[in-house]
UniProtKB/TrEMBL annotation:
Pfam families attached to this UniProt entry: Sugar_tr
Cell membrane as UniProt keyword: yes
Entry membrane topology: Multi-pass membrane protein
Name of the protein described by the UniProt record: Sugar porter family MFS transporter
Taxonomic source organism: Streptosporangium algeriense
Keywords linked to the UniProt accession: Cell membrane, Coiled coil, Membrane, Transmembrane, Transmembrane helix, Transport
């Protein structure tokens, strides 16, 4: 007798779904890798081009504006060209920008390549969750949707490990030369390898059945549904559900999102605010600046890269916890747990950083506060990873009605990148003014995120996408 998963999906079909989900999530790996690789290169770029905190904040953050643009256009491209073709475009942007970032001749040149990389990141951030939500059986959608965040945190971890390895090969200094280039240039260029893998896998996985139905390719959609849900699934009923949900649908436009709540539908605002809160707690300060942050409080360059890798490992552990729990206890409980834990950890980190003593151009923490700051940073990453890191992407992929999903997800993802940009570009200047004050602000937004989820976010666990509205 054929084994069957709880959703009624035969296990061999579920294995196929896991494969195509993992392939699609390589975009998330690139997203994490390309976002975090700059962490190890920041000090090298600053020394090589002789720029200050404002300029380095601009170069780090400029990719996020490209991400906002990529996210903004991805929904329309995905609805016109398909989910798979959009993945391929994102992969090509990653590949080309990786070479450009590795070989800049000026700081503005590097910034332009980072904008292009950001556009690829933004497109991947939209298309990955949308595609996975559209191919996953309802009972497994939360766990499979979590693959996107798992891939992101794996990308972050691998980038930190690669950065550490390159720095070690270069003698512990990212400005040392290695085979003709400075170490930080190799760090930025290494993204070419996963970009080409993403392009390869995007050519072999099937198109989303919902897109296929939307463009009239019903027979192909039937075949894909059979592949992912098995022979025992009522394929005609599933096709009818999709067709019914799309019957009144036209190609999603931004005008479809208009509503009575400050010009937008309430559900769109909820998606935007989920995205904003995910960034305003300051998580990407850890992944973009942690190497320079720990150097600023007295840890050497090589050890700071190793600490950055350790936070990435904690990030992975938390993501696996979220994957195990998201379909069991639901989305809202995980978000509430995460908000509470982050608020406490950030407040403790703020206290530790308040003890910093200025010695010349750097800040030094007493040994006790230095240890507390390290532990608090790791606890913060853990609570983020087991909650907001995973659940926001799951919710954005499933919470919107079919008729506006792609457009609404584009807007929410664009808002996320703008929020990310605001946090990233402001941190160097904030840290120079008051590192403790910056972390008090992040703790405040963690508290606000708890209140927001408590009163505004609905549970979506176990519901079909056609039921969302």
């Amino acid at each position: 007798m054929v084994g069957t998963a709880p959703s009624g999906t035969p296990k061999e079909n579920l294995g196929h779904v896991v494969f195509i989900t993992a392939a699609a999530a390589i975009g998330g790996f690139l997203f994490g890798y390309d976002s975090a690789v700059i962490n190890g290169a920041v000090t090298g770029i600053q020394k090589h081009f002789q720029v200050g905190p404002v300029q380095i904040g601009f170069v780090v953050a400029i990719a996020l504006l490209g991400s906002a643009v990529g996210a903004w256009i991805a929904g329309r491209i995905a609805d016109r060209w398909g989910r798979i073709r959009t993945m391929q475009v994102a992969a090509l942007l990653f590949a080309v920008s990786s070479l450009g970032q590795a070989l800049p001749f000026a700081i503005w040149d590097l910034a332009l390549w980072r904008v292009l990389a950001g556009a690829g990141i933004g497109m991947a951030s939209v298309i990955g969750p949308a595609y996975i939500a559209e191919v996953a059986p309802p009972a497994y959608r939360g766990r499979l949707g979590s693959f996107q965040q798992l891939a992101i945190v794996l990308g972050i971890a691998v980038s930190q490990l690669v950065n550490f390895a390159i720095a070690q090969l270069a003698g512990g200094d990212v400005n040392n030369r290695l085979l003709g280039l400075q170490a930080w240039q190799w760090m930025l260029g290494a993204c070419l390898v996963p970009a080409l893998l993403y392009l390869l896998f995007a050519t072999i996985i099937p198109e989303s059945p919902r897109f296929l139905v939307a463009v009239g390719r019903t027979e192909t959609a039937r075949r894909v549904l059979k592949e992912v849900e098995g022979d025992r699934a009522d394929l005609e009923e599933r096709l009818k559900e999709i067709q019914d949900s799309l019957r009144l649908e036209h190609r999603p436009r931004l005008s479809d999102l208009r509503g009575p709540a400050l010009g937008l539908l309430p559900i769109v605002w909820i998606g935007i605010l989920l995205s904003v809160f995910q960034q305003f707690v300051g998580i990407n300060v850890i992944f973009y600046y942690s190497a320079s942050l720990w150097q600023s409080v007295g840890i050497n360059q090589s050890d700071s890269l190793l600490i950055s890798f350790s936070t990435s490992i904690i990030n992975i552990v938390g993501t696996f916890i979220a994957i195990a729990l998201v379909d069991r206890i639901g989305r809202r409980p995980l978000l509430l747990i995460g908000s509470a834990g982050m608020a406490v950890a950030l407040a403790v980190a703020a206290w530790a950083f308040s003890a910093g003593v200025h010695i010349g151009d750097t800040v030094r923490l007493p040994s006790t506060q230095g240890t507390v700051a390290l532990v608090a940073a790791h606890v913060f990453v853990l609570f983020f990873a087991l909650s907001w890191g995973v659940v926001v992407w799951v919710l954005l992929g499933e919470m919107f009605p079919n008729r506006i999903r792609a457009a609404a997800l584009s807007v929410a993802a664009a808002a996320q990148w703008v929020a990310n940009w605001l946090i990233t570009v402001s941190f160097p200047s904030l840290a120079e003014w008051s590192l403790a004050g910056a972390y008090v602000g992040y703790a405040f937004f963690a508290v606000l995120s708890f209140v927001f989820v408590l009163f505004k976010v609905r549970e979506t666990k176990g519901r079909r996408l056609e039921e969302m509205g």
